[in-house]
Every structure is written in structure tokens, then in C-alpha cells.
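Reviewers of the previous submission asked for a worked example of the structure-prediction workflow described in the proposal, so we include one complete record here. The input consisted solely of the amino acid sequence. No template or homolog information was supplied to the procedure at any stage.
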Amino acid sequence: MTITIYHNPACGTSRNTLAMIRQSGEEPAIIEYLETPPSRAQLIGLLDAMRMKPRALLREKGTPYEALNLANPELSDDDLITFMLKHPILINRPIVVTPHGTLLCRPSEAVLAILPNPDIGPFTKEDGEVVTSPQRNSIV
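From that input alone, the workflow returned the following C-alpha cells.
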């Protein structure tokens, strides 16, 4: 089974998501997207799979979002994709791809909805929050 995580190791949510995937018994393919950004076609494919518009995937905090005036409603989806490819830090994370769906996993426990084995038992996130009742949603 192939699971892929678009990961930023400096992000606690991304680290928690990766740990949950591993606790489910899977070892995902890890793409550190800041070092290896997706191609335009890959990013569009991820957006399509998540049924998400580019604006919804933009990350504002800790990015050049304001400096680039990305709140401008006149920017097209194609414009926003171009900015995300030029500045991958603008892509919100983590994005996880599994045979059960593709999802922006914020909060990290959202990943449980698309894992083949969502019953990971008790899990304590880095901030001390305990995830106790994994639930499977129909996100596919």
C-alpha cells in the first residue's frame, strides 16, 4: 500500500500526522515539499483530488503571503498556483495521499479518515493532546 505525505519536518502538525501514519503500521513516502516542490501538474492534481481551490490551500502564517498581496481577490487560481510553485512555503501542509483519498490534514488527526488502518490506539500529539477515538469519514 502506498501512502505519500507532503511534509515539512519543521511543522508540528506535519510531524504529528507522520507519526500517526507510522503508528497505523504504514511507512509513507515522504516528500519534503520545500526541498522538492510538486510540479504544476502535481499541485493541480492534489487540489483536484482534495476538491479544493488554490486559495483554500494557501498558508498565510510565516510566509510571504502579505508581501505578495495574495489576499487580492483579483488573482486567478492559475496566479495563485504560480505563486505556490515559486514559493512552496505558501502550500499548506501536510497533504496526505492514500488509496482512500487525498487530504490536507489540519488538524493532524484528520489523517485517520483516509488511513487504511485508522485504529491507531491512543496517540499523544506533541502538544500533549490525546487522540483517542479515531473515526472513519467518507472522504473518498
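Residues 136-140 have pLDDT under 50 and may be disordered. We consider this example representative of the routine output the project will generate in years two and three.
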